[in-house]
Amino acid sequence: MTRPVLMRVLAVMVAGAVAVACGFDTGDPSAPAGRPPAATGTADDGSMTADEFERDISDATKSAESYWTSVFDQSGERFRPVRRILSYTRDGEVDCGGEPVPRNNAVYCPDGDFIAYDVNFAVAAFQQVGDAFLYYLLGHEYAHAIQARLGISHRLTIDHELQADCMAGAYLGDSVRGQSLSIEDGDLDEFQKGLLAVGDDPSVPWFAPGAHGTAEQRTESFFLGYERSLSACDLN
Q: Global pTM?
């Protein structure tokens, strides 16, 4: 992405929290905050422990930071990483601009510049889909932070969300091609399974506030970015 593209999209900061839809069995919501509940199931690619989960969350965050730092550096811009990554377990435990963040979500909050995720939701995704989904989850919310930094806004929520899916795909595809991340057997299937799980119910109108897109739309946007990089994501 060139410097002129970055400069053209500098405008008004995005306001409000943006959430992902969810379709996972999150189990017991009463687990203590800040530490994932003990794993009782397995992902398709093997067993899972709390330490493995936390390591993947940390690695996913670092890889997203590294990718966007490189993108901004190539454009002659200084990159400012997201200030905090928070976990929570209960409705209202975290708020964004005075609005409580609900369970079973992950959000980027411009007011405070943080990403927050329901740890039970994330663990359920890890167990039911696989570790690759955590990289998508953090990549999608990090993409919202990039939209905020670039001043990108959309009239319709669905356009904002599908662009973030594309940007998450670009981050992961570029990172694999640049060999800063390695792809394992089954990872692409895990991305697809996760995207199918977080798509809107077909009854949600495309123009509804908070609409994120159907499973098919989200999958298409993600893999367009994955295959074609940021040029597919309408950033200019």
A: 0.81
